[in-house]
């Protein structure tokens, strides 16, 4: 077996156990009493409704999980589909949701310990009354954080045994309890309102299934096992919960639960004692301890996976995910999460902890369902789930609406305000921290921006506004001909300097077809290439911009430019053009057309007749490519203090002037000299170019670049003028697959 | 006699497997191991073992630990290049780190397993198990522990 295969060692049962073990926790061992008091026997319905909402999301999570079995789960899918703004929201919500839920589990743990040890309600410490439950919760949380910090691997297997014990205890409880069930005992339902509110409270019992997707990369045969585990765990726990609630409402007399709650006892334990005798109570107490402990343990572990995935996308600093040399654990992430858990235990009452955990997870579930719809609708080539959601699009739409809608019914209301504050924080976090760091754009904004002409304006501008600007601006310069190399590097450096970016100088060495690239690499004597790149480095360094240099071996020099632009993640490629600039493309015209019709980045092609940017002429008729020429003119003006002249040719002078004034203002060139001419476009350009040192032309027609290199250029003007000419062509639509997953 | 009995071939440092836990450990170990490997013209395999939980979620994401391994390998490769030693790298997965190191050494027909002591308190060893001890106890080939200078 390949080594990589050994990394996947979670079988179907182990995966199922993660979900069941995380979910069966304080939710079912602590909350049923409160639930029955709030909703009457409709508490059963509350658990069923919670299960149904979870199930809808579980279906979506399964599809996304089989399509993208990557560490990070829910956060990862939302970030991929909806982009880093929503990714930041989902990541923070998932992280903090798990911390709140862990705090809740630990307070439940504290209640069980208190019940067993029979501690009094408060312990006096130095004159202060401290709730022993919270004290135990803090100690418990510290213990489980420590266990994850040092990474005792035995806990993982222990977890599997715990789940079996829990399911066994609850099974005995429900089977024996149902024998005693009597419909006459059912406490009267309190109606729909309290039932939904109760659903909001107990929803914290349904948070675990998504954690299965966060370890998707470790699951054997995820195509089959992941959906089974995710959906199976939700179905199993929903059934268990419903049966437990039926027994608790029907097997004891009305008023029993209320009495126990009032006495501060744990209702589940008291019911178990009534049904099964003292042994039942003991089993239930042990069960409660194990369940809350295992849920907290699993949640702490899961949160470090979310951190890792967020760090991988630079939503948080990757330093958080440093691995401990001895323990092999993400110790910083665990410690920080542990800190949050301890704080939450101290500051918030148990109901708030539970509902914060629920609301933050409901936010993720809502987004997760939308993420599924986006992945399907955007028709991403690489998106190939082996499991697909039934009744699409109804399932994810209903799943999303129900998830968000349930939030509105959550009580205490202050939870909603706190959660809204968390979401607002995550948005601000993205805008002020992550946006300048992350580089991944979501499928959604790709979809909108690639159809900018057909999408509603607000959607397009919103997508543009929140687009990540991650990392720096990279200007690639393919170098072939030593003659015009300095001018190209000068141009590229000037632009890079203005954009605080980097110059990437590449030399593409043509290898004869009969020599393999491997052989060429081994022979590796490229003095000429090195000299070329060294000079490029010197030239760029006079501008004080960072430079990268690369030598590429290829059978095809021209086509390689496009590949290199992708490989080196260029935002702009500056290349020369002219006699023997890059050899001639060795392919048929149609192949070049295909290449140049989907430009991987913006292109500037310099027809070099001496680099002098003092007087720049920019002819424009509007359109995206002249946007680029305007931007370039502006950058050059900032660097060289150039005078810029804008030229527009129109039949109607006054209309033309109005257009040009507006265009100049929109492009930050309002103070440029404006010239409006009528008549022949080329003649006008030619005559004004006589006074200019550089002509910047936007490729208003699609595929200008391809025609340029196949000698079928319509604009003869480029050859007829005496000054240098810069042809600007904007990045063309790339396939979603390439943007999403990078080229190969 | 032919070369088969030359010092280079019989040396413990001809084809050692060098387990590395992280970049700090990689640097410490490489500094003391590389001169000895270079002296006999040997080549080394840098090995990082990702400890698996074996049927339960791991303590860290596999991808995360592969990244961690590549950081350690980068250190080794740089130092090895300086020392003029050929180095290969490998990530292996196993529930028992010592057993996995021994398996790989067997598969690669390593001349020895070479590492530097990790130190660490009794507590840490109790919590995480002591890989060094198990390596020595179950060894089926030479195990060389190189003291680090400080």
UniProtKB/TrEMBL annotation, chain A:
Membrane association type: Multi-pass membrane protein
Any one GO molecular function term: transmembrane transporter activity
Secretion signal span: none
Alphabetically ordered keywords of this record: Cell membrane, Membrane, Transmembrane, Transmembrane helix
The UniProt record lists the keyword Transmembrane: yes
Keyword Transmembrane assigned: yes
Transmembrane region(s): 12-33, 39-61, 82-105, 125-149, 161-179, 191-209, 230-252, 281-302, 331-350, 356-375, 387-410, 416-433
Subcellular location: Cell membrane
GO cellular component: plasma membrane
Primary subcellular site in the record, as a coarse category: membrane
Domain UspA: 474-607
This protein's name: Amino acid transporter
Automatic annotation (TrEMBL), chain B:
CDD domains according to UniProt: USP-like (cd00293)
InterPro entries in the record: Rossmann-like_a/b/a_fold, Universal_stress_UspA, UspA
Domain called UspA: residue spans: 17-147
Top-level taxon in the UniProt lineage: Archaea
Record-stated family: Belongs to the universal stress protein A family.
Name this polypeptide is given: Universal stress protein UspA
Organism: Haloprofundus marisrubri
């Amino acid at each position: 077996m390949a080594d990589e295969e050994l990394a996947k060692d979670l079988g179907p049962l182990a995966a199922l156990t993660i979900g069941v073990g995380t979910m069966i926790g304080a939710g079912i061992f602590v909350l049923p009493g409160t639930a029955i008091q709030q909703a009457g026997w409709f508490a059963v319905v509350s658990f069923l409704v919670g299960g149904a909402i979870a199930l809808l999301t579980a279906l979506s999570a399964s599809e996304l999980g089989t399509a993208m079995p990557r560490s990070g789960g829910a956060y990862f899918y939302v970030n991929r589909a909806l982009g880093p703004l929503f990714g930041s929201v989902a990541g923070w919500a998932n992280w903090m949701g798990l911390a709140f839920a862990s705090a809740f589990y630990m307070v439940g743990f504290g209640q069980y310990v208190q019940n067993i040890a029979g501690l009094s309600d408060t312990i006096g410490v130095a004159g202060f009354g401290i709730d022993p439950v919270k004290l135990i919760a803090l100690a418990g949380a510290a213990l489980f954080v420590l266990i994850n910090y040092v990474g005792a691997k035995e806990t993982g297997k222990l977890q599997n045994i715990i789940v079996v014990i829990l399911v066994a205890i609850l099974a005995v409880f429900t089977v024996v309890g149902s024998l005693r069930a009597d419909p006459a005992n059912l406490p009267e339902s309190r109606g729909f309102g309290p039932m939904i509110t109760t659903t909001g409270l107990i929803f914290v019992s349904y948070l675990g299934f998504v954690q299965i997707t966060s370890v998707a990369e470790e699951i054997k045969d995820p195509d089959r096992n992941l959906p089974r585990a995710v959906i199976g765990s939700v179905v199993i726990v929903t059934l268990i919960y419903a049966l437990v609630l039926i027994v608790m409402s029907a097997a004891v007399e009305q008023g029993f639960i209320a009495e126990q709650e009032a006495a501060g006892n744990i209702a589940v334990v008291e019911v178990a004692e009534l049904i099964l005798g003292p042994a039942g109570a003991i089993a239930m107490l042990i069960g409660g301890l194990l369940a809350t402990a295992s849920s907290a343990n699993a949640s702490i572990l899961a949160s470090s996976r979310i951190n890792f995935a967020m760090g991988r996308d630079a939503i948080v600093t990757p330093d958080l995910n440093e691995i401990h040399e001895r323990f092999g654990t993400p110790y910083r992430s665990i410690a920080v999460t542990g800190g949050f858990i301890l704080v939450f235990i101290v500051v918030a009452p148990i109901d708030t902890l539970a509902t914060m955990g629920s609301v933050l997870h409901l936010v993720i579930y809502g987004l997760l369902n939308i993420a599924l719809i986006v992945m399907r609708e955007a028709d991403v080539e690489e998106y190939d789930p082996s499991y697909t959601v039934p009744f699409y699009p109804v399932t994810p739409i209903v799943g999303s609406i129900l998830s968000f809608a349930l939030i509105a019914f959550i009580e205490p209301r202050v939870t909603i305000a706190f959660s809204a504050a968390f979401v607002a924080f995550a948005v601000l976090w993205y805008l002020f921290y992550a946006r300048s760091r992350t580089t991944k754009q979501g499928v959604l904004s790709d979809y909108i921006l690639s159809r900018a002409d057909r999408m509603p304006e607000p959607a397009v501008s919103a997508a543009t506004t929140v687009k990540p600007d991650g990392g720096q601006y990279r200007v690639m310069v393919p170098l072939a001909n030593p003659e015009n190399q300095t001018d190209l590097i000068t141009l590229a450096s000037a632009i890079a300097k203005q954009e605080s970016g980097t110059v990437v100088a590449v030399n593409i060495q043509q290898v004869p077809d009969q020599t393999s690239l491997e052989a060429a690499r081994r022979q590796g004597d490229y003095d000429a290439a090195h000299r070329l790149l060294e000079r490029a480095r010197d030239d760029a360094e006079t501008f004080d911009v960072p430079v990268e240099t690369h030598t590429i071996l290829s059978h095809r020099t021209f086509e390689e430019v496009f590949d290199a632009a992708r490989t080196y993640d260029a935002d702009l490629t500056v290349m020369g053009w002219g006699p023997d600039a890059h050899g001639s493309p060795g392919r048929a015209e149609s192949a070049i057309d295909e290449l140049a019709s989907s430009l991987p980045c913006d292109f500037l092609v310099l027809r070099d007749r001496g680099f002098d940017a003092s007087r720049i002429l920019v002819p424009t008729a509007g359109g995206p490519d002249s946007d680029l020429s305007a931007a370039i003119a502006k950058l050059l003006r900032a660097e060289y203090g150039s005078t810029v002249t804008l030229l527009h040719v129109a039949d109607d002078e006054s209309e033309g002037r109005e257009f040009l004034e507006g265009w100049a203002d929109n492009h930050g060139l309002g103070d440029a000299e404006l010239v409006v001419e009528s008549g022949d476009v080329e003649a006008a350009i030619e005559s004004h170019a006589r006074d200019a040192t550089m002509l910047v032309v936007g490729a208003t027609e699609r595929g200008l670049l391809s025609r340029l290199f196949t000698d079928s250029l319509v604009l003869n003007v480029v050859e007829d003028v005496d000054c240098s000419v810069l042809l600007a062509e904007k990045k063309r639509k790339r396939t979603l697959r390439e943007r999403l997953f990078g080229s190969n | 006699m032919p070369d088969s009995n030359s010092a280079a071939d019989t040396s413990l440092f001809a084809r050692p497997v060098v387990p590395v836990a992280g970049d700090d450990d990689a640097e410490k170990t490489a500094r003391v191991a590389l001169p000895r490997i270079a002296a006999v013209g040997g080549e080394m395999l840098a090995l990082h073992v990702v400890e698996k939980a074996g049927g339960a979620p791991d303590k860290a994401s596999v991808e995360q630990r592969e990244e961690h391994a590549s950081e350690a390998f980068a250190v080794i490769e740089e130092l090895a290049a300086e020392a003029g030693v050929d180095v290969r790298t490998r990530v292996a997965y196993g529930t028992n780190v010592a057993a996995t190191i021994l398996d790989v050494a067997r598969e690669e027909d390593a001349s020895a397993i070479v590492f530097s002591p990790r130190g660490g308190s009794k507590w840490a060893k109790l919590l995480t198990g002591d890989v060094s001890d198990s390596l020595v106890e179950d060894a089926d080939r030479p195990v060389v522990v190189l003291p680090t200078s400080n």
